């Protein structure tokens, strides 16, 4: 053995050895317990960052542990086309060349993005391997694989046939920059300073931050408990500039404390106003189009951007004496979660899922403990969201993604839904000219089917009917054996986006939860606890850290010091410290093996000894194994890693090895036994150095790998 652990010398060869040995590929055995985890597919639009490194580490630790326990273990990898996320990233690349999406037709743009993602899809696989991910690459899936798309189409068609999908004009969150609608979950909020304008509407004064939308006003509403306006209900207010009469109505949604307590009702551009408008059968007048330009207004404002129109309208209202006062206001404003531009609520014709029945299924599954959140705080958040979800807008006005299999009849204007193949004629009038919808699915709709879709696709089962229950199809071997999966591990910030939707769609499609446990991990922060970002200059490149200190050191740094569900502080110093631990483990090996001429003679059975020091270290080993096993079972990976570290460095090396140097030959069997088992319980966390040492000192032959060794029980 060299004097120090040289990760560059071993890591690549060891990973190739694992892969060639078939160690990642589970062999289904109905007499053994199954363990299955589906990888949250990284977006195929860029290099992996330190957050990806954390999820890979957490999942690989769990996977290697269950594999060593003798369970039939499948960790199924994949990548995500990522819809708007990828198109947004690609558009930024186009902008560097002075181009935009508008310079290309849809087919050309789609092909360009497809080529872009294929490049990063390959890079992602290489980077996952560099992180030591022991997943089954023979089952790898991509969200745009043809078999995955077929399953997505089947789910959509089944939901439509069951009356859970409809197309309608409803208020949606719209980003005029990205050019698409979003669901309720895909908007962020920012604090913003604005102006609050008090406008003279004749009989009543209203307050608004959006004077440019007054031309879409259809009423003025007051709260029925507001005694100030009792006598005005039923009368008409006067819309300034255009002098249109607006009915004064009552509605309990009006906030008495905001402004004057009188609210201008603009159904086309505000969610609350839309609800009030629907209850009162008010017309819907849109004055902002999908590009953020004014329409349906007096001619002088048509074509202006929202902010330019606001300036012009305010100026005209002031000239008419219709602005009573202007106040400063600090409030929350909805913004696009991608480019942070202001969201424009607008009424649009979209595809929606009626989530009410699906949310009830998910709530019951959580209540009945069919799916368990390992951290109680996330269960509470999940229940809150499920109780407050609105119908899910699943259509996106973008090129990149799975195109919605809906075909509109040019004669009766009705939609025919298929499983992807264009119908020969309309389902309603037999007319044969149908045009496919140009919208694509929200990427969360397709990825929401990921657990059952990946396993069915792995089985090459795409010709089926929903619901698909276990053992319904004998050829669905992976699905029948591994579903429901054991655990879903992912970032806590996509709990409502993805985890809840997987539960809802999984229950709908299969009648069972898609996974039994939900383990959510926190963010990676710098050593000061600050969020890692390019603007702060504190980015930690995982691949650079691997090159400098080795994969094992990075992995230990990512699980050290914090529960999985909490944010973890990481610095280069942390990683360097774990590299020192790698060297310590290596040097222990040099000491243990130095007196052996034939490494095949190393004893791995419990030594018979009456020596006090030997008995002490053996008892400490047994205790550590039990505690580490319990900690990993409870997903307390930091606790497990720190216990292994403490045992190897302090109890085994500092105390025991130092104490037996004078009786080396007598203690050798104990040394070998304790060291071999120490390597086993360390392997899930630091797989490379443990595999290298195992091959040098404990392997019976080249096929004897620690990745396939049995987890010690004592």
From TrEMBL:
Any Pfam family the entry gives: tRNA-synt_1
InterPro entries linked: aa-tRNA-synth_I_CS (IPR001412), aa-tRNA-synth_Ia (IPR002300), Anticodon_Ia_Val (IPR033705), M/V/L/I-tRNA-synth_anticd-bd (IPR013155), Rossmann-like_a/b/a_fold (IPR014729), tRNAsynth_Ia_anticodon-bd (IPR009080), Val/Leu/Ile-tRNA-synth_edit (IPR009008), Valyl-tRNA_ligase (IPR002303)
Residues of the signal peptide: none
EC code: 6.1.1.9
Single GO MF annotation: ATP binding
Superkingdom assignment: Bacteria
Keyword Oxidoreductase carried by entry: no
Matching CDD domains: Anticodon_Ia_Val
Any Gene Ontology CC annotation: cytosol
GO biological process: valyl-tRNA aminoacylation
Keywords carried by this UniProt record: Aminoacyl-tRNA synthetase, ATP-binding, Cytoplasm, Ligase, Nucleotide-binding, Protein biosynthesis
Annotated ranges, domain Methionyl/Valyl/Leucyl/Isoleucyl-tRNA synthetase anticodon-binding: 614-713
Annotated Aminoacyl-tRNA synthetase class Ia domain residues: 14-570
Catalytic activity line of the entry: tRNA(Val) + L-valine + ATP = L-valyl-tRNA(Val) + AMP + diphosphate
PANTHER family, alphabetized: VALINE--TRNA LIGASE, CHLOROPLASTIC_MITOCHONDRIAL 2, VALYL-TRNA SYNTHETASES
Family statement drawn from the similarity comment of this UniProt entry: Belongs to the class-I aminoacyl-tRNA synthetase family.
Official protein name in the record: Valine--tRNA ligase
Species per Swiss-Prot/TrEMBL record: Candidatus Woesebacteria bacterium RBG_13_36_22
